[in-house]
Amino acid sequence: MDQRTPVRRTARAAALVLLVLTTSTGCTGGVEGRPGAAGLRDPYFPKLGNGGYDVTHYDLALDVDPAAHRLRGTATITARATQDLSAFDLDLVGLTVESATVDGRPAAVNRAGQELTLRPDAASRLRRGSTFRTVVRYSGSPRTLTDPDGSQEGWLRTADGSVALGEPTGSMAWFPGNNHPSDKASYDIAVTVPEGLTAVSNGELASRRTSGGTTTYRWHTGEPMASYLATVAIGRFDTKESTTADGIKVFTAADTTVAADSARILARVPEVVKWEAERFGPYPFSATGAIVERSGDAGYALETQNRPFFHGPPDAGLLVHEMAHQWFGDSVTPDSWRDMWLNEGFATYAEWLWEADKNDRPVQGRFDAAFEDDDNWAFPPADPPTAADISQAPVYGRGAMVIHRIRQAVDDDKRFFALVRGWTKAHRHGNASTADFTAYVEKTTGQDLTELWNTWLYGRSRPASKD
Ligand code: TRP
Ligand code: ZN
Predict the structure, then answer these.
(1) What is the DSSP string of 247-294?
(2) How do residues 248-286 score in pLDDT, each as one tens digit?
(3) Residue identifier of the C-alpha nearest atom 10 of ligand 1
(4) Is residue 467 part of a domain?
(5) Which of 10, 97, 151, 370 has its CA 20 to 30 A from that of 444?
(6) Per the domain annotation, does 45 fall within a domain?
């Protein structure tokens, strides 16, 4: 906290100087426009993301030496300017920036905290609406970050390599970008590792080539992805490739020490995808799978796109949860970190549905238990008090209760699941907010649900009755 305020002041001072420069050189062919904002004013992470442009594609080439914990990267970022830009920021923490170019010409580099500011040379014209290409070369020892809730993200060292986990902020520990869920883009991620190690990432494996003692894995993500869902896992993995009956490519990777224990559950990936697609709508991506590390390598699972990450072999409930995020979070992505309950509420509700379907454990029983659990009433799911709370019980448990209350209000399972499928269809590969959701549900049901939202979504205390 102490370090943050001075950092932000530095960034502001730099922006002011730039502004003065811009005005004074404006008519002599200097850099035109104004600097893009240094953050997107997310309610919990105001400095995340940047203003003035929209990324359409990230091309990341990473050369990783796991033994030395070193990374060398080239990030080629294609973006569209949303204003005339004299300068713009990317988010990056740690590492050393060796060079940066914009449309092939050198750009001035400034760093202040997580803000990497690039100022294109005077000949560059970043006009509103134009597409430009930024290349950043960087290297160093990528950092592990500690979240507000105390968990570790960013670049984590594992027993035999590393894994990158990015929720909510960690992607900036291994590549420069517009690090906010509201700016989704396609990705090509190429990772070069010593021969014998495997590098797993998102999307489809486009190629794998070994020469001179190293292997390069090229991964392609064609559908839009939020930066927090990007991953790279490096280590000794047992991998399996197949294709589902619906033509979805499956790639699973399990750390060799847990591969035998993972085999049974990983074989169920296609079954879970199909079961969820029947309820939530068509699976949104061309590829699926999973990454299983040793339990000591990370403290939690994450819905990394296409290929959820697990800290040890997951049980069916956890697989169902992370796979449900492919619809709720990965395809339909929150507008801001305040909308987290849309991710976790639906993913938790998917677990309840699975338990009811497979193990005869009625959803109503789960709802009743969640209602009695004091932890779910600590704060309203749609308004966590601090950044540390976005991963806490009300976001999950009461989030799921909100979904169940909607199901009760609809009072017809056919119509309820049609409503859910309509939601994933309306925002497929996009973003959505809590307000988008409540408006959608009211419009679809034709009901005024003010009471439901006020009690279950925004209410601060447990109502007298759960009915
Ligand atoms: N989204 C993860 C899950 O439920 C958990 C998680 C990891 C998380 N990091 C987070 C939730 C940061 C909120 C914020 O599967
Ligand atoms: Zn989750």
Answers:
(1) S-EEEEEEEGGGHHHHHHHHTTHHHHHHHHHHHH-S-SSSEEEEEEE-
(2) 999 999 999 999 999 999 999 999 999 999 999 999 999
(3) 167
(4) no
(5) 370
(6) no
Rounded-to-integer distance, Cα 88 and Cα 77, Å: 13
Determine contact, residues 275/200, Cβ cutoff 8 Å. Answer: no
Ligand closest to Cα of 301 equals 1
338 and 250 both lie in a single domain:
no
286: phi then psi, degrees, rounded to nearest 5: -85, -15
Q: Are 87 and 120 spatial neighbours (Cβ–Cβ below 8 Å)?
A: yes
Distance, in Å, from the CA atom of 266 to the CA atom of 240, rounded to the nearest integer, reads 9
**Nearest CA residue ID for atom 11, ligand 1:** 391
Give residue-wise pLDDT tens across range 32-76: 899 999 999 999 999 999 999 999 999 999 999 999 999 999 999
Q: How would you classify the pairing of strands 85-91 and 115-120?
A: antiparallel
Q: Which two tokens stand for residue 142?
A: 């990528």
Let me know if residue 462 belongs to a domain.
Answer: no
- 203: tokens are 């999307």
Q: In 3-state terms, what secondary structure has residue 95?
A: coil
Q: Which tokens is 88 given?
A: 């713009």
Which amino acid is it at 396? Y
Q: Which atom of ligand 1 is nearest to the CA of 347?
A: 4
Please tell me the residue having the least CA distance from ligand 1 atom 13: 391
| Residue 152 near residue 173 (C-beta atoms within 8 A) | no
Nearest of 147, 198, 135, 194 to residue 173 by alpha carbon: 147
Ligand showing the shortest atom-to-Cα distance for residue 169: 1
Domain extent at residue 382: 333-457
d(CA 183, CA 170): 15
Going from the Cα of 167 to the center of ligand 1, the distance in angstroms, rounded, reads: 6
Note the ligand closest to the C-alpha atom of 340: 1
- Pick the residue whose CA is nearest to atom 9 on ligand 1: 167
Block residue for tokens 């759960």: 466
How many domains does one find in the chain? 2
* Residues within a 6 A CB radius of ligand 1: 167-168, 300-303, 321-322, 340, 344, 390-391
